[in-house]
Specification:
With 57 residues, the protein is mainly alpha-helical. The chain contains 1 helix and no strands. The longest helix is centred in the middle third of the chain and has 32 residues. It starts with 21 loop residues before the first helix and ends with a helix.
């Protein structure tokens, strides 16, 4: 049976080398901003589809 490090989860992506690396956090921030733009565009698209579907005749 494999022993697990007591302070780390099996599913953790953090390592001591990346936990405080500014470059890693800058990349994550860029990815989060890109993800926010995608969700924002999706919300606007759904809103416009709803306006088109329920437009007054």
């Amino acid at each position: 049976m494999m022993q697990q490090h007591p302070k780390r989860s099996v599913h953790s992506l953090e390592t001591p080398a990346t936990a405080h690396d500014p470059q890693v956090w800058a990349q994550r921030q860029r990815n989060n901003v890109r993800l926010a733009w995608v969700f924002g565009a999706l919300a606007v698209a759904l809103f416009l589809v709803a306006l088109w579907k329920y437009r007054p005749l």
